[in-house]
Design goal:
The chain is an alpha/beta fold. 32% of the residues lie in helices and 19% in strands.
């Protein structure tokens, strides 16, 4: 007997093959049959005639590590379920909640403040105890965890902007390997952000060597997406090549109009690496804007020592003017990890007009959320730099911003389309949902946008190819053997949607509109979305661990 049969839909299995009309039988959280099950004994049959049945979508690049332990996370992360996401890859861009050194825990907390929602207990120190906490409290989605270079470095030396000593490098390697033994799928780096910006390539290469014996993957928010884009792309490929490991270029992009012509060149770097046998890939946000901390506008030297050190420099009139001159005049170059160098000047690349405030911590500044920096400056009778500096000081560095100009803009997204269309491009949200502030539209609509706008409406690729980019491709990149396909023996992570109506309804001005066309979502065989209604109380997800049979 089947516990449930999803009957009569067009099954697009995630492989890229044409869809077929078939029934999908589910028992014990697994897909146990695909075919004609009209006469099968079943407890509940769900008729989805005329709809598309696909594997649950895998968000290959999420930042929900600091939400998953919260009791309220099911409600806060509900928009992911609502767009068909059943599995999230966490620990990206050098940010993860573990491992933790009590001596530097405050620095880790400050570093990750913009990713946090409800207050979290300090209930773990190791990566394994963090995953154990998630196991004990339950998760709404499946979690594929990465351990982060930033957390590992802060564990050893805090926010010091210097090279590691040999014993410190060895300690980081041991901590990485312990985290891999405890279930991490790989290592991420955020080389645009402190403390990653202080790490020379040799540090990253030596640390990533520890992934080899665990068959772990290295993912990187590269050092820069403007002037240093080509060199930074070569670096992530080199880490994979010299160590013989899989490497993933996180949210591949060219930031700022002068740099959009480099898109073909960076794709060619990856293609040539593949020809040499490097296991490289990349993922793409299906929007021309990205969200990250407002601290990313500041030069690396200003962040040496951590957030408190930056705030002290901004309070000092002489240092404040030095920071202004860096933003106004400094052009990124290579090498960009030495003291005083800069990997990626976001203001130079995109301009103040394209930077808006998404979230601030204090109630006093809530009225600034959603406004551009020039708008905030005009309200305060100052200029954008002074407005940004004031907000950072008032918020103790706890602020998040939206940056427009990622591989295109609101008039021209041809560069973004070239990246999305590439057969190695997985789809991601890179969205930061905390229950506070204004989120990126991707939090509500990334996957429906690809299915509706890019696949159906513009014909960029077929529906089957769109689904492959969301399911089997990211599963293969992370070695998930039981996810990403509609096939017998696979986990019953399933999305049912109307291919004719599925669409993203958000805009940058209204980023929280629910998508249309997503009818059912199953996580490990449990219905979490029913006719578009999301059950925020379910804990149907699983904390996956590298090499486990249920991964």
């Amino acid at each position: 007997m089947f516990e449930r049969v999803i009957a009569g839909g067009r099954v697009v299995d995630g492989s890229g093959s044409p869809g077929i009309v078939a029934d999908v039988g589910i028992s014990g959280g697994r897909i146990t049959a695909v075919g004609d099950l009209a006469s099968a004994d079943v407890r509940k049959r769900v008729d989805v005639t005329g709809m598309t049945v696909a594997p649950g979508f895998i968000d290959i690049h999420s930042h929900s590590d600091f939400l998953a332990p919260a009791e309220e996370h099911g409600e806060i992360l509900a928009p992911f379920l609502g767009q068909g996401i059943t599995t999230i890859v966490t620990g990206n861009c050098g940010y993860s909640p573990a491992p933790v050194n009590p001596a530097t825990a405050d620095e880790l907390d400050s570093y990750t403040a913009f990713l946090r929602g409800p207050d979290l207990p300090r209930a773990w120190d190791s990566f394994g105890s963090y995953l154990g906490y998630l196991d004990d409290h339950g998760v709404a989605l499946n979690v594929v965890p990465l351990v982060a270079h930033g957390a590992l470095r802060i564990q050893q030396i805090g926010f010091q902007g210097r090279d590691l000593e040999s014993d410190e490098q060895a300690a980081m390697r041991r901590s990485l390997e312990q985290s891999l033994e405890e279930g991490a799928f790989g290592l991420s780096s955020g080389l645009l952000y402190a403390p990653g910006i202080f790490a020379p390539p040799e540090e990253i290469e030596a640390l990533a060597a520890g992934l080899k014996q665990f068959d772990g993957i290295y993912t990187s928010h590269i050092r820069g997406s403007s002037e240093t884009l080509l060199s930074a792309t070569k670096e992530v490929i080199r880490v994979g090549e010299v160590n013989g490991i899989s490497c993933q270029h996180s949210h591949i992009e060219a930031f700022g109009k002068p740099h959009w012509p480099k898109i073909d060149a960076i794709v060619e770097l990856h293609e040539r690496a593949r020809e040499r046998g490097v296991d490289t890939g990349f993922d793409v946000i299906p929007y021309v804007a990205a969200n990250t901390t407002l601290l990313a506008i500041f030069p690396p030297w200003a962040l040496s020592g951590g957030v408190e050190a930056l705030l002290a420099r901004l309070r000092d009139p002489e240092q404040r003017q030095r920071i202004r001159r860096s933003i106004d005049e400094d052009i990124p170059g290579w090498p960009c990890w030495i003291p005083g160098a800069w990997p990626h000047n976001l203001v130079e690349a995109t301009g103040w007009d394209n930077i808006s405030l998404l979230w601030v911590e204090s109630e006093a500044n809530k009225g600034l959320e959603g406004k551009t920096m020039p708008q905030i400056a005009a309200e305060r009778g100052t200029d954008p730099f002074e407005a940004a500096a004031a907000v950072v000081l008032e918020e103790n560095g706890h602020a998040m911003a939206l940056y427009v100009g990622v591989s295109g803009d609101l008039e021209d997204d041809s560069g973004l389309r070239r990246l999305l269309k590439h057969p190695w491009a997985s789809i991601e949200t890179d969205a930061i949902l905390t229950g506070r502030g204004v989120p990126h539209p991707a939090a509500y609509g990334a996957f429906p946008r690809v299915l509706g706008h890019f696949s159906r409406d513009t014909g960029l690729f077929s529906l089957e190819e769109a689904i492959r980019k969301m399911t089997s491709l990211p599963a293969e990149r992370f070695g998930l053997r039981a996810r990403g396909r509609i096939a017998e023996g696979y986990a019953a992570d399933v999305v049912v949607f109307d291919a004719q109506t599925v669409a993203d309804q958000t805009s940058y001005q209204d980023p929280t509109a629910a998508p249309t066309g997503i009818e059912y979502v199953f996580v490990n065989g449990v219905v979490v979305v029913d006719h578009g209604a999301i059950d925020t109380n379910r804990r149907a997800g699983t904390v996956l661990r590298r090499g486990a049979s249920d991964a």
